[in-house]
Amino acid sequence: MISERRATPWASTARDLVLVAMAVFLVTIVIGILNGADAVEFDRNQLLTHVHSGTIGWLTLTIVASTFLLFRAADRRLMLALAVLVPVYVLAFYTGNFAFRAISGTALLAVVVWLLYWAWTTYLAGERTLPQLAVTLGLTSFAYGGVIGVLIQVGLALELAIVPGDNVGAHASAMTFGYLVLTAMGLIEWRVLDTRDQPTLGRVQVGALFLGGLVISVALLTGAEQIGGMIYLLTQLVAVVIFVIRVFPRALGRSWTDADPGRHFAAASIWAVAALLLFMYLVFSFITAENPDDPAALPLNVLLASDHAVYIGVITNVVVGLLSLLFLRGRAPSWVAQVIFWGINLGLLVFAIGLILDTAEIKRIGAPLMGATLLLALGLLAARAWGSEPATSELDAAT
Fold first, then answer.
1. What is the 3-state secondary structure (H, E, C) of the chain?
2. With 60 as the cut, is the pLDDT of residue 296 above it?
3. Angle (CA) 347 375 326, round 5°
4. What's the whole-model pTM score?
5. Does the pLDDT at position 5 exceed 60?
6. 33 pLDDT band (50/70/90 cuts)?
7. pLDDT tens for residues 175-231?
8. Within 13 Å of residue 377, how many CA atoms lie on the same side as its CB?
9. Burial of 299 (0-12, 13-18, 19+ CB in 10 A)
10. Residue 84 class from Cβ within 10 Å (0-12 exposed, 13-18 middle, 19+ buried)?
11. What is the mean pLDDT of the chain?
C-alpha cells in the first residue's frame, strides 16, 4: 500500500516547514509574554527579534506551508532554504550587527524571489482560483516589502540613506496589510467558501487589497502620504465591504460552541475586518492631523493592536485551523480544541483592549493567557505533526 507520505509529498513538505516555524515562534511567544506582562524590559534589538521571529519566522513560514497545501504542490529545496535562512535572519536581529542583518537579509531575499517565481508559475499552470490569486498577489507584496526591508538593513550597515521617505512605514505597511491580510483573506476564502473560480466581486476585493497596499507603500516612500492615504482608505473600504458581504454569512453562520476547526477560519475573518478598520483609522488620523510629523498623530497603541489582530487573530487562527484539520480532528478530546480556540481569541481580545486603552493591567491579563494557550497549541500540534502524516482528505471541502 502506498503510504500517505509518498502519495502527498507536498503535505509532508508543508508539515516539516510548519515544525520549523513552531520552533522559531517559541522565541516570539516567550518575549511577548514577558514584555506584555512587564516582567522584563527588552532592548530594541530584542524587540526587533520578537517582531521578526513572529512575522518572518512564524507567519511567513506557515503562510508558505499553507500555500503548499492550497496549491497541493511544493518545492522541498525551497522549503529547506527557507528553513535555514529564516532562523539565521532572526538571529541577526538579536545580535544587533547591521552587517550580519544585511548579508543574511540579502540571502533570504534571493530565496523570496525564488518563492515568488514558484508561486506565479504554479498559479499560472494550475486552476487559477480566487484563493490562489489572492495568495500569489500577497506573496508579491511580501517580495517588494522584503526588498525595502533589506535595503534598509544594507543602508544601516553602510551608513547610507538608500531608501527615501518613511521607509520603515513603507516596509511595515507592505508586510502587514499588503501581504498578510491579503494572503489570509485568500486562505479564509479557500476554507470557508471553497471558491474554485474567480467571481467578479472577489477579483475586485483582491485587486483593491493589493492596490491599496502598493499605493500606501509608494506614498510613504515618496512623501505623498495625503493622496496615497486617501486612495488607500478607498480601496480598503471597498475590500472590507465586499469581504463582509461575500464571506461573513457563511463564516459566522456556524456553531461557535462545537469543537470544530472551522471556527478558527470564522474568527480569522472577524479579526481581519477588525485589523483593517483599526489601520484605516490610523491612516485617517494621520492624513487629517494638523501636524503629521508629530509622533502623537499616529497612536502607537492602536497600531500595535492592529498588528496583533493580524498576527494572532488572522494568520495564527488560520494556521491553527489548518493544522487542527490535518492532525487533530478526531484525534484529540474536544475540550482541548475548546481551550485552544477560546484561550487564543479571548486572550487576544483582552490584550488588544489593553493596547487600545493603553492600560497595563489589562495587557498583563491578556498577554499571558494568549501566550500560554499558544504554547499549549504549539506543543500539542507539534507532537501530532511529528508522529503522523497530514490527513489531506480533510482539505477536500470547505469547513
1. CCCHHHHCHHHHHHHHHHHHHHHHHHHHHHHHHHHHCCCCCCCHHHHHHHHHHHHHHHHHHHHHHHHHHHHCCCCHHHHHHHHHHHHHHHHHHHHCCHHHHHHHHHHHHHHHHHHHHHHHHHHHHCCCCHHHHHHHHHHHHHHHHHHHHHHHHHHHHHCCCCCCCCHHHHHHHHHHHHHHHHHHHHHHHHHHHCCCCCCHHHHHHHHHHHHHHHHHHHHHHHCCHHHHHHHHHHHHHHHHHHHHHHHHHHHHCCCCCCCCCHHHHHHHHHHHHHHHHHHHHHHHHHHCCCCCCCHHHCCHHHHHHHHHHHHHHHHHHHHHHHHHHHHHCCCCCHHHHHHHHHHHHHHHHHHHHHHHHCCHHHHHHHHHHHHHHHHHHHHHHHHHHHHCCCCHHHHCCCC
2. yes
3. 100
4. 0.91
5. no
6. confident
7. 888 899 999 999 999 999 999 999 999 999 999 999 999 999 999 899 888 898 899
8. 30
9. middle
10. middle
11. 89
Q: Could you give the C-alpha distances from 288 to 224, 226, 232, in angstroms and in order?
A: 14, 8, 14
Cα 341 to Cα 162, 262, 374, distances in angstroms = 44, 10, 10
The predicted-structure confidence for 297-307, as pLDDT tens digits, reads as follows 677 788 889 98
The separation between CA 133 and the C-alpha centre of its own chain, rounded to angstroms, equals 17
Task: Note the pLDDT tens digit of each residue in 313-346.
Answer: 999 999 999 999 998 866 667 888 899 999 999 9
Q: How far apart are CA 34 and CA 58, in angstroms?
A: 18
Task: Give the model's pLDDT for residue 1.
Answer: 30
Sign of CA dihedral 42, 43, 49, 52: positive
Percentage of residues in the chain having pLDDT higher than 90: 59
Q: ∠ CA(105), CA(180), CA(302), 5° rounding?
A: 100
pLDDT of residue 163: 81
